[in-house]
Write a structure and sequence with these properties.
This protein is an alpha+beta fold. The protein is about 25% helix and about 20% strand. The strands form three sheets. The protein has a ten-stranded antiparallel beta sheet with strand order 5-6-7-9-8-13-14-12-11-10, with helices on both faces.
Amino acid sequence: MPDLAAGGTWTRVRLRWRRDPLTGASARILTGVKLQPASRPDLRELTAKPAFCPFDIEHLETATFPFPPELAAEGRIRLGKAVVVPNILAYATHSAVGIYDPGRHFLDLDDLTPSLVGDALAAMVRHAQAVRRLDPAARWSSINGNYLPPAGASLVHPHLQSAHDAYGLTGQRLLAERSGAWQGGRGSYWAALVDQEAGGPRWVGQTGRVAWLTPFAPSGFHEVWGVVSGAADVTELTEQDCQALGQGLSQVLAAYRAWNLTSFNFGVIGGGPQAHEHGHQVVLKVLSRSNPEPVYRSDATYFERIYGEALIDLSPEEVADGVRTRF
């Protein structure tokens, strides 16, 4: 490459190419280039409380709807400060939205405390368990989050979303299928991964049953994984697991805050109908996104960045209808 500091002299530099041992997905890690910002943007304009936000406490009861009584007798699922309500967009056969704290319009990364995150995850798990009882065919479950517009969030008020159906997401199915095929289905890939990485250069730490590490071949910036021992599906997460996930995720976000980052996606990924046969373990993946400078909303959400699945608003047939008239 031309070395700008040396007047364009051609110089050999190192590029690391890595292949994920489970999925085969590859990553390229640059040498010397650090893209994290030197300072944080001023978020006051973006995060100022608007006249109306459906997740704010004064509007929540009128702007959101209760679940049907056969799903949740209490209508809205509450735990601590967290509230879970139906999603008004059909991302999946069953989908919910979890609000960490309706009383606060914006929560910065260091405001997403272990208890706040843990309670929100546990409330979403309660919804997942209720869905599974009502619709046993909805065996693919995940809990996900887009935080701020660069991560694809349409609302600034921090929230989570879930997906439960019979189809799963592209990356979710890939993890489950490859986990089942690993070494001919003998043992758990995830348990072996944790055993191998423990104490090594990619090891982060442990909270409860959750082992935290960084992936060998990341799919995004600052990516960290939390692998839950003993839970193959989202519906098997205990409240203790949710608190352990909340503690670990909060600590990851504290590191993001120290690096002047502001936006992120995460996904808590269940293993589908054959989760136990495949030796799957629930894994949380979190990665950072660009800072909102200038303020914008990305067209890539956790669907694209974590699961490799397109989320689009027009069918190919509708696009063809619109373009056809131009030909």
